[in-house]
Specification:
The complex is a heterodimer of chains A (about 110) and B (about 120). Chain A is an all-beta fold. In chain A, the strands form two sheets. In chain A, strands 2, 4, 5, 6, 9, 10 and 11 form a seven-stranded mixed sheet that branches. Chain A has a four-stranded antiparallel sheet with strand order 1-3-8-7, with no helix packed on it. In chain B, strands 2, 5, 6, 10, 11 and 12 form a six-stranded mixed sheet that branches. Chain B has a four-stranded antiparallel sheet with strand order 3-9-8-7, with no helix packed on it. Chain B starts with a strand and ends with a strand. The chains are: A mainly beta (about 110), B mainly beta (about 120).
Chain lengths: ~110, ~120
């Protein structure tokens, strides 16, 4: 069966510091991968999605970036964090477009 | 553009009551998919159901049921005989088959369901 992992689970970072969140999927190949952010008290917003290695599409302009160095690895990064980057970051995968997306456990990021 | 509205921000009921969570969507596509997810306090989103726009049959899974009505662009979720373990935030989401370019889901803002013992 397929599983999706995210780490770290929780992160507290100062403003201006770099960020790297990792997501890996097991038990499937060539998945579609997604990064979402959930700000406090709000719904989920799609940040990036990827249909293959090195292929990244951005939905929201911001100081975050994403990379997919391997088939089942998806990384969310920032060179300099802002206070507004605080939130709950969720990674998801699906086998094909419009199919069900399955979510990881998430990373809670607090920028101080 | 696609949009999902969950007008109920928070609902509180006593255990064993039935409760319905509303979801209204907007899309210009004729082919689309609707989803419900549950987010317990741990934060992980748990998939509940996926329905395509051509299948308007209502679905029942144990105490859960879903009512899809294209005429009113609604996809409502009912929990029968609610239990404390049903307490969570529930999200309705939409995915269009074509258009917009994005493969992601458009989520509503969620309904916080509180089941009191």
């Amino acid at each position: 069966s397929q599983t999706i992992h995210q780490w770290p689970a929780t992160l507290v970072q100062p403003v201006g510091s770099p960020l790297s969140l990792e997501c890996t999927v097991e038990g499937t190949s060539n998945p579609n991968l997604y990064w979402y952010r959930q700000a406090a008290g709000r719904g989920l917003q799609l940040l990036f999605y990827s249909v293959g290695i090195g292929q990244i599409s951005s939905e929201v302009p911001q100081n975050l970036s994403a990379s997919r160095p391997q088939d089942r690895q998806f990384i969310l990064s920032s060179k300099k964090l802002l206070l507004s980057d605080s939130g709950f970051y969720l990674c998801a995968w699906s086998q094909r477009r419009q199919e069900t997306q399955y979510f990881g456990p998430g990373t809670r990021l607090l920028v101080l | 553009a696609q949009k999902v509205t969950q007008a109920q921000t928070e609902i509180s009921v006593v255990e064993k009551e039935d409760v319905t969570l509303d979801c209204v969507y907007e899309t210009r596509d004729t082919t689309y998919y609707l989803f419900w997810y549950k987010q317990p306090p741990s934060g992980e989103l748990v998939f509940l159901i996926r329905r395509n726009s051509f299948d308007e049959q209502n679905e029942i899974s144990g105490r859960y049921s879903w009512n899809f009505q294209k005429s009113t662009s609604s996809f409502n979720f009912t929990i029968t005989a609610s239990q404390v373990v049903d307490s969570a935030v529930y999200f309705c989401a939409l995915s269009e088959a074509v258009g917009g370019g994005a493969d992601g889901l458009t989520f509503g803002k969620g309904t916080h369901l509180i089941i009191q013992p």
